[in-house]
Amino acid sequence: MTASGVRVRIAPSPTGEPHVGTAYIALFNYLFAKKNGGEFILRIEDTDATRSTPEFEQKVLDALKWCGLEWKEGPDIGGPYGPYRQSDRKDIYTPYGQELLDKGHAFRCFCTPERLEKMREEQRAASKAPKYDGLCLKYSAEEVSAKMAAGESSVIRMKIPTEGSCDFADGVYGDVSIPWDSVDMQVLIKGDGMPTYHMANVIDDHLMRITHVARGEEWLASVPKHILLYRYFGWEAPVFMHLSLMRNADKSKLSKRKNPTSISYYSALGYIPEALMNFLGLFFVQIAEGEELLDMDELSEKFDPENLSKAGAVFDIQKLDWLNGRWIREKLSEDEFQARVLDWAMENDRLKAGLRLSQSRISKLGELPELAGFLLKSDLGLDPSAFAKIKSPPEEILEILNTVQPDLEKILEWNVETIEAELRAIADRMGKKLKVIVAPLFVAISGSSRSLPLFDSMAILGRSVVRQRLKLASQAVASLVGPKN
């Protein structure tokens, strides 16, 4: 433990591209540890076995390292309170589930998914918030034993008080009171023996001696469940701090469906990590006009967790562009700038892979920018006329683009083979030839109908850039189709 005793953590789930919101929460925790002479910990929360992948975990590590954040303990470097990956801790949680059963704080639930879905439908039809109705609470110990002996599948749910409210002090929101009758009887241990987020989160924070939990405000409603678990186990709860969500300028939630949200997207477009951290760090400091350009040490010095806004952190892309430009012009020497450009071009082998694909397709080097320049562009500047040479009508092109976008999100490992396989499957599902599907994708991805091989290009650019280019292409083609009647 540190002299201050402060230990904080970031605990992302490896279920997709690392979000700028993860960097935002991670930076707060990092600055909080730095300000208080504490320790910043990384833990991977992969209890969702169906969506968590090693590829996404590595992307989390790479993204946070790119941001310039360093952790004292984590899955890659170990530490005294490991393992730091929840799937490696499965055996740790089982005794705690049994302890809650033995103390009468939890119960076995044998309800089938079909029964639970019917229950929720009836509650929604009656304008009630869906939550467990307590059916399995009525079973006696003998009945539970008989069901277990018969091999009936079950989960472990927590018991919730029936009266009163959970009152607690939040580091951002102050005094909070949430009625117990609004809190669901949360599943703690799933049928496969893995804990849910709530169970693992509390146990891990306790065993890893986390003193302060800083996370997004969307978790505020879950605090009663967590506090109750701390009470059931007889443990001291950490200090909770719930940070305002990152939002668009119109106050809507920042989401990949509306705007680019992946850290890898901003890296690929040539934003430098110091500028992104500077931009996010401004949400946690009080500064005067003209003091905006701050490095990590300066952010730490001015960091003020006592004066955080509850109004919401607005992700203003124009301000980020302005800060990024200032960092490039004012903070980098000529040699540093050249080195950064080369590092950026070589990121994920983008330039090397692009040159390899280009070699057999050009007759002179001067043709390279037109053929492969799209790999390095931040904006293709697509307009509807770019799709004029495609034989398919605009309505069909739009259907293809709108179908491909969500279907590509299903790919777990992003590479040439999986991209090709998914696009061929899409063609089959849509009843179209593959060449009909890929024609508009060539334009959407490269800005031209003559380009490098499509599947390879998509793999080089990465999921987050492809996602954004397809979205912008859909918007361009939609203007040709016009509004629906």
Automatic annotation (TrEMBL):
EC class name: ligase
Binding site for ATP: K256
Cross-referenced Pfam families: Anticodon_2 (PF19269), tRNA-synt_1c (PF00749)
SUPFAM superfamilies assigned: An anticodon-binding domain of class I aminoacyl-tRNA synthetases, Nucleotidylyl transferase
GO BP term, pick one: glutamyl-tRNA aminoacylation
Subcellular location: Cytoplasm
Motif segment ('KMSKS' region): 253-257
PROSITE patterns, A to Z: AA_TRNA_LIGASE_I
InterPro entries attached to this UniProt entry: aa-tRNA-synth_I_cd-bd, aa-tRNA-synth_I_codon-bd_sub2, aa-tRNA-synth_I_CS, aa_tRNA-synth_I_cd-bd_sf, Glu-tRNA-ligase_bac/mito, Glu/Gln-tRNA-synth, Glu/Gln-tRNA-synth_Ib_cat-dom, GluQ/Sye
Top-rank taxon, per record: Bacteria
Gene Ontology cellular component list: cytosol
Coiled coil: none
Segments forming domain Glutamyl/glutaminyl-tRNA synthetase class Ib catalytic: 6-322
Main localization category: cytoplasm
Aminoacyl-tRNA synthetase class I anticodon-binding domain span: 337-472
Intervals of motif 'HIGH' region: 12-22
Catalysed reaction, written as an equation: tRNA(Glu) + L-glutamate + ATP = L-glutamyl-tRNA(Glu) + AMP + diphosphate
Role noted for this protein: Catalyzes the attachment of glutamate to tRNA(Glu) in a two-step reaction: glutamate is first activated by ATP to form Glu-AMP and then transferred to the acceptor end of tRNA(Glu).
Protein family: Belongs to the class-I aminoacyl-tRNA synthetase family. Glutamate--tRNA ligase type 1 subfamily.
UniProt subunit comment: Monomer.
Protein name, as recorded: Glutamate--tRNA ligase
